[in-house]
Write a structure and sequence with these properties.
Structural class: alpha/beta
Radius of gyration: 17 Å
Largest sheet: 8 strands, mixed
CATH superfamily: Vaccinia Virus protein VP39
CATH architecture: 3-Layer(aba) Sandwich
Number of strands: 8
CATH topology: Rossmann fold
Length: about 200
């Protein structure tokens, strides 16, 4: 289940409905359904969807007219996209100039021993912090690489960092505890959010 702050972030960052929105990595379609209820025209896609209303297609294989979306959103999804650079260029072609990009991500390079240990102590299914860190970094794109792949087509805002571990396969209700530990300097901020605007001409920085 998506955290309420994720849905609130999406609503705040997206253009007003009835904008046409592409959701990348839609999974069970929960966010798409919430946005559709707000009046958005949403196309949710996922290479391995968990709901019938989510189109089974990878971003790079999506066949839609150029500049046919007003916005795109990816919630903890872009880090799995392959091939990343080519898929991001295709995304740039799908979003109209001036359109909006909304990203909510896990910053895998921010996960350290403190983060892994806290996550395991709160129900994370692992027993070794080094294995958690190596496993995540071994198969997830770093945020810096994602931003580099998007930068030719999107003017990106500065990342906003915050909690993420409480959303990562552990019991709910730990958002405030994680946030407090980040504020005290006892945990890293492993979540990152940023928005961007489709450049009027691709390839400019």
């Amino acid at each position: 289940m998506l955290a309420p702050d994720v849905i609130a972030f999406a609503r705040d960052a997206l253009p007003a409905p009835p904008a046409r929105v592409l959701e990348i990595g839609a999974g069970d379609g929960e966010l798409a359904a919430a946005l559709a209820g707000d009046g958005y025209d949403v196309l949710p896609i996922d290479p391995s969807p968990k709901a019938e209303h989510v189109r089974a297609v990878a971003l790079g294989d999506l066949e839609e007219p150029a500049a046919s979306f007003d916005a795109a959103i990816a919630v903890v999804a872009l880090h799995h996209v392959e091939p990343l650079e080519a898929s991001c260029r295709h995304l740039g072609a799908l979003i109209r100039p001036g359109g909006t990009l909304v990203i909510d991500e896990l910053d895998v390079m921010a996960i350290d021993h403190r983060a892994a240990t806290w996550w395991m102590a709160n129900g994370g299914n692992a027993h070794d912090a080094d294995e958690v860190i190596a496993g995540m970094r071994g198969h997830i794109h770093p945020v810096d690489r994602m931003r580099e792949a998007l930068a030719p087509d999107f003017a990106l805002g500065e990342p906003i960092r915050g909690p993420y571990l409480h959303r990562w396969h552990i019991p709910p209700g730990l958002h405030d505890a994680e946030t407090a530990l980040i504020a005290a300097g006892e945990l890293p901020a492993t979540g990152v959010r940023f928005a961007g605007t489709r450049r009027q001409s691709a390839g400019r920085r």
